[in-house]
Amino acid sequence: MSWKEGIIGDNCEVLSSKRIFAKDYVENGIPFYRSKEIIHKAFNQFTKDEVFIRKEKFDSIKEKFGAPQKGDALISSVGNRSGVCYWIKEDYDFYFKDGNLIWFRNFNDKLLSKYLVYFLNSDLGQSKINNVFIGAAQKALTIQGVKKIKLDLPPLPTQKKIASILSAYDDLIENNLKRIKLLEEAAQHIYKEWFVDFKFPNHENTPINPETGLPEGWEMQTIQDVAKTIGGGTPSTKKTEYWESGNIHWFSPTDLSKSSSLVLLDSSKKINDLGLKKSSAKLLPPKTILMSSRATIGLFGLIDNECSTNQGFINIIPNNDNYRYYILFNLMNRKSELEANASGATFKELSKTNFRRMPIINPSEKIVFEFNSFTQGIFESLKNLAQQNQSLKEARDLLLPRLMNRTLEV
Length: 410
Fold this sequence. Notes:
The chain is of the alpha+beta class. It has 2 domains: 150 residues, DNA methylase specificity domains (Adenine-n6-DNA-methyltransferase TaqI, Chain A, domain 2), CATH 3.90.220.20; 166 residues, DNA methylase specificity domains (Adenine-n6-DNA-methyltransferase TaqI, Chain A, domain 2, Alpha-Beta Complex), CATH 3.90.220. Helices cover 39% and strands 17% of the residues. Strands 2-9-6-7 form a 4-stranded antiparallel beta sheet, sandwiched between helices. Strand 15 and strand 16 form a beta hairpin. It comes from Haloflavibacter putidus. InterPro entries: Restrct_endonuc_typeI_TRD, Restrct_endonuc_typeI_TRD_sf, Type-I_RS_S_subunit.
């Protein structure tokens, strides 16, 4: 059977949610997703539930109007990251913000929901989405616009084959992400056990100093005592000569928020030597601790290569290499303290001055060395898994357009 052209709105229901107001938000309950959370899920990134609505409210809406379920799809519909489509792979209760997301459900027997998601996320699908955007200052998708998008519909068995081929890559990526999460949790657990609960190796035979309340040989210092701190900068985006053939990683906080691991392999943008020279960006040595210091404060990352960042960072270079992972996990566990030291009316920013003054426990060198040896192995595993996922994504993204434009038959 041949492929036929179809229209999305003829093959499934395209709709939005019922309006939920800010006064309906509660501290715990049913997760309430905006574009941000769904985009993270679509890219297999860590998603923290931040907004909730009451279960009674959700149950009432679900009974009258329905709620997203396994096999449905959602697409981000407003802002710079509009057009990211997500397939709901399991049944669980959540609701979503109208205007932020568009919902696909009740598919007929001519269109597989998973095939639609892969189509919309392909280059071909994205070009179709670009044609129905509205808005100049802030682009957006409308339900009516999305309904009218045309797509090639192969026979349902072919759609299932295409979805199965691409899903195999996604399943491997997801499995690696679970392993990454477990490894990072293991390192966090050891950090807390040793440096918060003071149950480090041989702690039973280490006396506590009555004056400091710390184990003997440990002392309280400040960040500036244990590390150098360096900011970043942005070369003029109007001067293409600063960005052409860029060979220097240049990170923004968005790179960190999009990352599924503490290990960073690449930045979304790169600058060249001239861009570095003509801006306040600095060339940072390998394995510098990158920490976002404005807007979202306390995002972290490590990269094995030289890199630079924009001005939304405080970059931390330990005086002693063995202290790198200790300082990283120490700061990761103090996010609320980092935020409390920030200031600003429009948006909060943590200054280098305030950060340098923050206290930090300096454990004995022997214990830090043992912790470094333990976490070094974990970070090697994290890097390997991140590299595997990068290769899997590249292979999947090469296959996707070829399957959709029929240059690769299935």
